């Protein structure tokens, strides 16, 4: 049985995150542990952000991202902000460089407590998203759901922000769609050999939009940062918005906001909050856990 590690229950705009400290160890959080933690109402989460020792010079940590169904993800914007806040409060430092499966990310905590993460460069090539069918123009591909002559959702923009995303532009509040019905069908559509995160996005002005996401491996979450980045890129790419937008995440508590800028150097920078909730220890092999008494053990 492996020894326990410390973790923090956090959230990024309501996206439920467990930040797990795996530094100094060779093992990983197992899919079985993730599924067990996700099944307990107290530790129910969307993503685990497991902090490992750095693997390459010039980085502060390797981040292993695990969805609540036990699968691995290449990117998690909201979770990355949580990692920054956790490490900033531990070390007093303000800027960090992380490695994930998708590459190197730089992040900084600002004086007001908000955190900016450079999410890297969007990828539009069909075979790198990946799609199962060749499309030269991925700003609008042929894909629809609902009646053939009157589809409910159609012609998404597709891209990789490290992880695969499909953005369906809609003309009313994304909360008014049955995303819990269409999300699983689209996530698992044969067009996406590695599945996809499915987002509904509505333009509200040249500098603002509203989003709601069905996440690959996690389902309906309250917020998805990489989806907000993808929607912002798609908005600018198709001329719907400028390159810097305020994204209202419709499903998040109080319709929280992220600022997303697709910079001239092609990098996408996401800025928003992160919130610490409580701490505990867990077994990364089994998922058994204990909430630390000073953080309110009465709840367990
Ligand atoms: N919540 C995340 C995205 C998490 C990963 C996603 N479910 C996937 O499998 O690609 C975010 O804030 O970006």
UniProtKB/TrEMBL annotation:
<comment type="similarity">
    <text>Belongs to the diaminopimelate epimerase family.</text>
</comment>
<comment type="subunit">
    <text>Homodimer.</text>
</comment>
<feature type="active site" description="Proton acceptor">
    <location>
        <position position="224"/>
    </location>
</feature>
<feature type="region of interest" description="Disordered">
    <location>
        <begin position="279"/>
        <end position="300"/>
    </location>
</feature>
<comment type="pathway">
    <text>Amino-acid biosynthesis; L-lysine biosynthesis via DAP pathway; DL-2,6-diaminopimelate from LL-2,6-diaminopimelate: step 1/1.</text>
</comment>
<dbReference type="InterPro" id="IPR018510">
    <property type="entry name" value="DAP_epimerase_AS"/>
</dbReference>
<feature type="binding site">
    <location>
        <begin position="225"/>
        <end position="226"/>
    </location>
    <ligand>
        <name>substrate</name>
    </ligand>
</feature>
<dbReference type="GO" id="GO:0005829">
    <property type="term" value="C:cytosol"/>
</dbReference>
<feature type="active site">
    <location>
        <position position="76"/>
    </location>
</feature>
<feature type="binding site">
    <location>
        <position position="15"/>
    </location>
    <ligand>
        <name>substrate</name>
    </ligand>
</feature>
<keyword id="KW-0457">Lysine biosynthesis</keyword>
<feature type="site" description="Could be important to modulate the pK values of the two catalytic cysteine residues">
    <location>
        <position position="165"/>
    </location>
</feature>
<feature type="binding site">
    <location>
        <begin position="215"/>
        <end position="216"/>
    </location>
    <ligand>
        <name>substrate</name>
    </ligand>
</feature>
<keyword id="KW-0413">Isomerase</keyword>
<dbReference type="Pfam" id="PF01678">
    <property type="entry name" value="DAP_epimerase"/>
</dbReference>
<feature type="binding site">
    <location>
        <position position="47"/>
    </location>
    <ligand>
        <name>substrate</name>
    </ligand>
</feature>
<feature type="binding site">
    <location>
        <begin position="77"/>
        <end position="78"/>
    </location>
    <ligand>
        <name>substrate</name>
    </ligand>
</feature>
<keyword id="KW-0963">Cytoplasm</keyword>
<keyword id="KW-0028">Amino-acid biosynthesis</keyword>
<comment type="function">
    <text>Catalyzes the stereoinversion of LL-2,6-diaminopimelate (L,L-DAP) to meso-diaminopimelate (meso-DAP), a precursor of L-lysine and an essential component of the bacterial peptidoglycan.</text>
</comment>
<feature type="binding site">
    <location>
        <position position="197"/>
    </location>
    <ligand>
        <name>substrate</name>
    </ligand>
</feature>
<feature type="binding site">
    <location>
        <position position="67"/>
    </location>
    <ligand>
        <name>substrate</name>
    </ligand>
</feature>
<dbReference type="GO" id="GO:0009089">
    <property type="term" value="P:lysine biosynthetic process via diaminopimelate"/>
</dbReference>
<feature type="binding site">
    <location>
        <position position="163"/>
    </location>
    <ligand>
        <name>substrate</name>
    </ligand>
</feature>
<protein>
    <recommendedName>
        <fullName>Diaminopimelate epimerase</fullName>
        <ecNumber>5.1.1.7</ecNumber>
    </recommendedName>
</protein>
<feature type="site" description="Could be important to modulate the pK values of the two catalytic cysteine residues">
    <location>
        <position position="215"/>
    </location>
</feature>
<dbReference type="GO" id="GO:0008837">
    <property type="term" value="F:diaminopimelate epimerase activity"/>
</dbReference>
<dbReference type="InterPro" id="IPR001653">
    <property type="entry name" value="DAP_epimerase_DapF"/>
</dbReference>
<feature type="active site" description="Proton donor">
    <location>
        <position position="76"/>
    </location>
</feature>
């Amino acid at each position: 049985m492996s020894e326990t590690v410390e973790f923090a229950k956090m959230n990024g705009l309501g996206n439920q995150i467990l930040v797990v400290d795996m530094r100094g160890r060779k093992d990983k959080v197992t899919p079985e542990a993730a599924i067990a933690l996700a099944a307990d109402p107290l530790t129910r989460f969307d993503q685990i952000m497991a902090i490992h020792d750095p693997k390459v010079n010039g980085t502060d940590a390797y981040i292993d991202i695990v969805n609540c169904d036990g699968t691995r993800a290449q990117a998690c914007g909201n979770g990355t902000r949580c990692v920054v806040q956790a490490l900033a409060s531990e070390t007093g430092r303000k800027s960090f460089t992380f490695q994930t499966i998708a590459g190197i990310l730089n992040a900084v905590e600002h004086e007001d407590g908000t955190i900016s993460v450079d999410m890297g460069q969007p990828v539009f090539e069909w075979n790198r998203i990946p799609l199962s069918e060749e499309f030269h123009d991925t700003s609008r591909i042929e894909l629809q759901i609902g009646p053939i002559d009157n589809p409910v959702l159609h012609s998404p923009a597709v891209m990789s922000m490290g992880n695969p995303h499909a953005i369906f532009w809609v003309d009313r509040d994304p909360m008014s769609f049955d995303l819990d019905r269409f999300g699983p069908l689209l996530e698992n559509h044969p067009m996406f050999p590695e599945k996809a995160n499915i987002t509904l996005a509505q333009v509200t002005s040249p500098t603002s939009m509203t989003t709601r996401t069905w996440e690959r491996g996690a389902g309906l979450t309250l917020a998805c940062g990489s989806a907000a980045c993808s929607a912002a890129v798609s908005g600018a790419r198709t001329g719907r918005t400028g390159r810097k937008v305020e994204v209202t995440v419709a499903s998040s508590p109080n319709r929280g906001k992220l600022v997303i800028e697709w910079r001239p150097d092609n990098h996408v920078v996401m800025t928003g909050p992160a919130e610490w909730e409580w701490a505990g220890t867990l077994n990364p092999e089994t998922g058994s856990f204990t909430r630390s008494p000073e953080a309110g053990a009465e709840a367990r």
